[in-house]
Amino acid sequence: MPRKNVIRKSALSPTVLIAGGAGFIGSHLSEALLLQDARVIVLDNFKTGRDFYIGHLLTHPKFALYDADINVGFPPEIESVDYVIHLAGLEEYLYSEEQVNLDALLTNAVGTKNLLDLANRSHAKFLLASSIYVYQGMMSQITLDSYFGRTNIEEKKYSATEAKRYAEALVWEYYKKNDTNVRIMRLPEVYGPKMDLEASGNLGRLLKELMDGKDLNIYGEGVEKEHYVYVNDVVSGIVRALFNDRTVGKIYSLIPPEPYSVLEIAFLLKTLANREIKVEFKQKIKEMEPRQAYPDTSNLKDLRWEIKTSFKDGIIKTLMWYGYDVNQHSFKPAKFIEEKNREKTLIDSLTTVEGKVSPEAENELISSLSNVAEFHTPEEIKGKKEKKPFPLAEAIKGKISIFKNLFKKEGRSQTKPQSIPPAGKSRNKIMLSIVPAVLFALILLTVGIPSFMSYAYAKKATSDIREVPVLLSQFKTTEAQTKANSAFQNFSKSQRFFSQLGWAFSLTGNRDMYNSSSKVLSSATYSSRAAYYFSKAAVPFSSMWETIKPNSEKEFSAEEFEKYRSDFQTARNSFQLAQAEYKNVDKDDLPGPLKEQITEYENILSAAGQNLDLFADGMNSLPDIIGIDSSKKYLILFQNNNELRPTGGFIGSYALLELEKGKIKNLSIDDIYNPDGQIDVRELETPESPAPIKEFLKEEKLYLRNANWNPSFPQSAREIQDLYYLITGTKTDGVIAVDLYFAKNMLDVTGPLFLTAYNEEISASNLYERTQFHSEFNYENGSDQKRSFLTVLGSKLLEKMFALPSGQLPVFWSKMYENLEQRHMQIYLTNNPFGAVLQREGWDGSLAGVAKDYLYIVNSNLGGNKANYFVRNTVDYNIMSETRDGLLRGNLTLTYEHAGEGTAWPGGIYTNYVRILTQEGSKLTGARIVYPDREEDIFGNMIITKAGKYNSFETPVLIEPQKRVQLKVTYDLPIGLSINANNMNYSLFWQKQPGTQDDKFSFKFEPPFGLETGQSSFDGTLTGDKQFNIALDPK
């Protein structure tokens, strides 16, 4: 490819730009992409790249190489590309040039920005190659001389880590603010042909020693572990992530299932050596101990990526590429490691038993004992007995007799001495009485006291940490910080005392129990530290709650969030460390009492991870949402679910909420018929109504009250915003929809409201009745009756919510979360990054985007009445396969029972327009309606259309009062969901319609012939979205 040619995107083949493409990974990636017939453009400044890595590609017609520094800019020939891969600055710390650190920082800062700008201009997909070690790092607090570490290796390694963190932050900013199509690929140590032997952790060093004919050196015990991935597997992961539309905005960590220790690597290389070599253990080089990285790999299933090259095969291929004559033998280092650990454990145990307690340790023990009174009740100090024995005591019960052997003389004669001096006999009696006392004191000092102190501190810490979530939900951030700090201090002390018991566990054969228990304590320590900093970061949310109240005179600024952002980052880092420690815990090894509580801790870790992500997004987006810099206006739709519509109910009323500088500037509530009336009065041109509304409601124009017809709430919300702007000229920044279940849940928290203007009490039990009485009874178009009642009710409810005592706030937030999860509240935001969070959590009311089987029943009342109050729904869904090719068929039965009496309003005939949303590619095979006295085949009358990406099977169904009607539909699922040798799993996502609450469901999966499964039948109440996953096995 001549360099003078202008490079721009082409429809003939994808154009891929690789920054740092002349390096180890980049050269392999270039070769793979060229084999896929892509055009490859490589930019490299050859600081770490090598000419000979890609020299053989220069003659390829679709390959171009530019010696360019991405920090400065790009060659003018490059106009646009389809894909941008950022590999530059990935391995700079591995070399010794003095300017390498600066290059790494600039390449990951300025260079990353330049590449992101190119991706934006080109509308290209962008991938950043980062490192799993972004979790690690250190910074000096007092001097710049050793800012990133004490040694040259540490400085280069952790400055590169910081550079990658900054590069990831830039990618995140472009994704959030510019909607750039980005993804991040975090890599571990990569090895393979062309690797630099000065790199790739301990593996590179050991390979170099092997090929130089030297013995293999292990510094320290050799138990530290690193993740290694063969370069071809890395290339596969990058390609899969780049050419997959579902990876946008995702972070993937390419790591193998298990890391390898230095000891394992050394003995693997020893078996592959072509001569006799030794493994030498040497004193460890003094440097900072890196923490093992355990990133989340759960989303790798999106890429369908897995390790193809085993570690041993990869090593053999690498050695052969370097021309080394490999002697291939079996590899069994695990036994050696086990023996080594057993040897070390025995040495540690004997050393502990034979050693003496230092004066410093004695003083520390005395000091610790004096601190017990800080958190124990007088009864506990006096020796109140615990109902449950301490696990360690149970573990070593009956095994203390091992100490007797330490004092037993071997080969002692059993013959009675002929003569013993009286004085010696007396001394022997004294010794016999002293030895048990010394033994008891020794056990007390080395086992009893550490056990008790560890247990006591852990118990107090657990009590403290349980209070933190409650205090935070009450916005008592100062008290939460105090409790979290106390928990951190006590867990740390518990961990310190527990560490003194390692020898005892080893001596009694319970070393695994010790290791797992120690990891639990370590994880809990990090968790409490995360809770402390999270409590600090939550301070601005407490200020916002006080500021937003209508009667508040306080002001709020975006700086409130910025001030505490570093605290949140510290909390997040500590939490990641807590997760990493917990991943090393084997629950089967834990003692009984701890095993019972570990599930609760697991759930806390899971919930905390989700909340931290939500909190991070909230810190970034909330200032804009609450109008800190500019006024924000939101439409609030009050949907009456007794007249059910696709997004929750008929829109009878609405409110306009205006926020400015974090405060409620205005809240006005109005009847929906007032703006709708303007459409006719001013003869405004609006879109046509959907066909079913035309047919049953006889309305040609689309009005606000019917604009929530699209099952996807964001789509309906945009339609409503456009109509509202057409009518009022007011632009809104979002739409919030609530139904009567939302109001009922809020009244459950606030209690009944007394409306003085109406001289009556409104409660959760009479809300529907009184709202309908004041809203509909003798209501005339143009009157203020409905608006006045809802204004008073809404204002009073808002006033009561903001006046809730702190003790009720946890229940309040719990109800709000319940409303979002059960779709009684939906939120759509215009041009705000938090909208992506709402979609991710399922809180924006959009159609879930899944590739599995999908079912969404959408009922719509088009009878102009409130008949849904009297109708009970039941849904039965049965999946079976009747063909040899494994094609699945769905049998769906919708049962409607009308308990109303007569046709008088607000009841009457339920005119229901039913939509059944199924996965795209499904094919309708039958449909019929079963009435009490007859059955009607409606297959030929079914309407088949699209709702988003899904197929929609639609038909009207009329249910008279006191009647039971069934709609039965059958359809074939898409071929891609068929059960066969390549797919032995079935999954279903069942989406709940907003505005519904008590619909009953049953689901049954009938395995194809010759296969079986576990539980395959489910039933219950559809209170939220449901997911079912069924694995199949041959009989």
Automatic annotation (TrEMBL):
GO terms for molecular function: NAD+ binding; UDP-glucuronate decarboxylase activity. GO terms for biological process: D-xylose metabolic process. GO terms for cellular component: cytoplasm. Residues 16-252 form the NAD-dependent epimerase/dehydratase domain. Its cofactor is NAD(+). The keyword Transmembrane applies. Pfam families: DUF4012, Epimerase. Gene3D superfamilies: NAD(P)-binding Rossmann-like Domain (3.40.50.720). It comes from the Bacteria. Keywords: Decarboxylase, Lyase, Membrane, NAD, Transmembrane, Transmembrane helix. The chain crosses the membrane at residues 430-457. Coiled coil: none annotated. PANTHER family: UDP-GLUCURONIC ACID DECARBOXYLASE 1, UDP-GLUCURONIC ACID DECARBOXYLASE-RELATED. This is NAD-dependent epimerase/dehydratase domain-containing protein.
